[in-house]
Amino acid sequence: MFDQIRKRKQEEEAMRAAGRLPPGQALTQKFPVLHYGPVPTFNPETWDFRVWGEVEQPLRLTWEEFNQLPKTRVTMDLHCVTKWSKFDTVWEGVSVRTLIELGLVRLKPTARFVMQHAEYGFTANLPLEVVLQENFLLATHYDGKPLDPEHGYPLRGVIGFIPDRPDLKTPYLWKGAKWLRGLEFMAQDRPGFWEMAGYHNDADVWKEERYG
Length: 212
Fold this sequence. Notes:
The chain has a single domain, classed as Oxidoreductase, molybdopterin-binding domain (Sulfite Oxidase, Chain A, domain 2, Alpha-Beta Complex). The protein is globular and about 55 Å long. The strands form two sheets. Strands 1, 4, 5, 8, 9 and 10 form a six-stranded mixed beta sheet that branches. The protein has five helices and eleven strands; from the N terminus they run H-E-E-E-H-E-E-H-E-E-H-E-E-E-E-H. A hairpin with a 5-residue loop joins strand 2 and strand 3. With 212 residues, the protein is of the alpha+beta class. This is Oxidoreductase molybdopterin-binding domain-containing protein. InterPro entries: OxRdtase_Mopterin-bd_dom (IPR000572), OxRdtase_Mopterin-bd_sf (IPR036374).
């Protein structure tokens, strides 16, 4: 046990020295499960993914149609507001930029923000510029396997830090919604579930913006 603790601390210090551990965070080798409410059930026959708001035309995709979209793989460091960080996690899914490049989503000039809508009415907001970054993904797979139910199966938004892309904004992990069902593009920002509960609207991990 002491060897494991010493190894974890050595890895943590290495990440801190490399500039990959934000203030107030600690390395974890596990993948903690944190969410509000129960894990929803999934029915592939009735599940759909919707896009609406400041777009030229609303979009609805079935689970089968969503899985036919081109996939993107991204390796990211995750930083949770509860102060754990997990490094070099591998995710696969669909980028919002892909939806736009394929012409499935055509944004109006007024689109500036995005609200993620998930099961049970859960919401998470982000600026459009962040949603279009390489470190935001509509994820279906983690570590080469479909998401576990408690981590958001069948679809979740995920956002993290790409080590060689310090130019990208990196919010805390809560800004990616589990059990995602749709994206609402908005002209004006609105707070999501946790923001209404007092969490910081921007949630920059490097500025330690945990609470508003």
